[in-house]
Specification:
The protein is an alpha/beta fold. Helices cover 53% and strands 8% of the residues. A five-stranded mixed β-sheet has the order 1-2-3-4-5.
């Protein structure tokens, strides 16, 4: 049997050229897969389904219902291993609309040691999602359906969603390009656009992109650059990063400024954690800046100011997100359009798990409305 990477490649090629042609003819099976793939409120199940199918195709002796080695049977396997080692790379390579991280660390799927039978009750929402994936695993177990067909059908539907989403983005981008030929937006209009956009649900990644866009637009003037951003879900302790955005001089790898974004009030404990990170890697910074979308507590702000001498010259500051961007746009007024283009590019290039499709489409629609006005 081919290796997992080759199995995925074959399944992808099977459906890539004609994604509108279903692989599975049985309505019930096809509808169950469609529900799992298209469920926007819970994206874990589609990765579980692909991981279990991949393992079963790779080793036919596995019981597709046993993706936990803790079960202890000879026919169980590590679904998390297949998910992390093969599914992650596969969805990234083909830009498929799935979460970036393994499904087996989400509450419903982690720390289990039981067979995923049809009558199992898994706590999670929506309940129907879990019922449908258990039905599909049982259908494979009872030889009612081919594992290869379920895997290919799942990939086919993911390709359709990917293409449909990209087509919508392309249409919105094209419509926007036709409205940008007049006078560029003012700094305050850009601020209004950003305020409206970050007020939407599930936009915690946007402050990171705002700061990154600001430095990219002004890089040649500042002689400073932004290091590559880490994944939205990656912990600093795992990546070795000091914060969400790290700034270096253009010709020097030494980090001189760190930004950490908080979608909540900044606390003294947040600052203490930052101090521990700095000490742990023996790094000397110029600035460690917290950016928040919430109210800034004066006592915490004063504590941050008091650390300058204690840290040997590192400035700690707490800044309001919109206030930072407003000052930046007026300071670099002639770069305001460059900033906006950088920000849009960052939004559109972020994976679905960081910036969702609705948030991306909303920005393009809001900007077009602003440019038209």
């Amino acid at each position: 049997m081919p290796e997992p990477t080759e199995i995925l490649r074959i399944a992808f090629q099977r459906v890539a050229d004609y994604p509108h042609n279903p692989i599975i003819k049985e309505d019930k099976i096809r509808e169950n897969i469609g529900y799992i793939v298209e469920c926007l409120s819970n994206r874990s199940a589609v990765r579980v389904l692909m991981s279990c199918c991949l393992a079963k195709v790779h080793n036919s002796t596995f019981d597709i219902r046993k993706p936990y080695t803790e079960i202890g049977d000879s026919d169980c396997f590590s679904g998390r291993t297949y998910d992390e080692q093969y599914i992650t790379a596969f969805i990234h390579k083909n830009n498929l609309p799935c979460n970036n991280t393994t499904a087996f660390l989400t509450p419903a799927w982690r720390n289990r040691n039981e067979t995923l039978t049809r009558n199992l009750r898994i706590a999670g929402k929506p309940p129907l999602l879990y019922a449908k994936i258990l039905e599909l695993l049982d259908a494979v177990y009872t030889n009612h359906i081919s594992t290869e067909d379920i895997l290919a059908e799942t990939i086919r539907l993911l390709i359709l969603i990917r293409n449909e989403r990209q087509n919508r983005i392309n249409a919105l981008t094209e419509a926007l390009s036709k409205t940008k030929e007049g006078m560029p937006l003012s700094s305050e209009s850009i601020i209004k656009l950003i305020e409206q956009h970050i007020s939407l649900p599930h936009t915690s990644r946007l402050p990171v992109l705002l700061i990154t866009a600001a430095y990219r637009a002004a890089q040649s003037l500042l002689q400073e650059k932004v290091l590559d951003l880490q994944s939205h879900n990656a912990a600093d302790t795992k990546t070795g990063a000091l914060g969400d955005v790290e700034i270096t001089l253009i010709n020097d790898a030494q980090v001189i400024t760190v930004y950490e974004m908080k979608d909540k009030k900044i606390t003294r404990e947040d600052i203490e954690i930052a101090l521990q990170k700095i000490v742990s890697i023996n790094n000397t910074l110029d600035n460690y800046i917290f950016i928040t979308t919430k109210e800034i507590d004066l006592e915490v702000k004063n504590y941050a100011l008091s650390l300058y001498e204690e840290t040997g010259g590192i400035e700690f500051a707490l800044l309001d997100c919109i206030g930072f961007v407003r000052h930046y746009l007026h300071l670099f007024h002639r770069l305001r359009s460059d900033f906006l283009e950088e920000y849009q590019s960052l939004i559109l290039s972020e994976p679905e798990s960081s910036v969702s499709q609705p948030v991306k489409e909303a920005f393009l629609s809001m900007r077009q409305a602003m440019e038209t006005d």
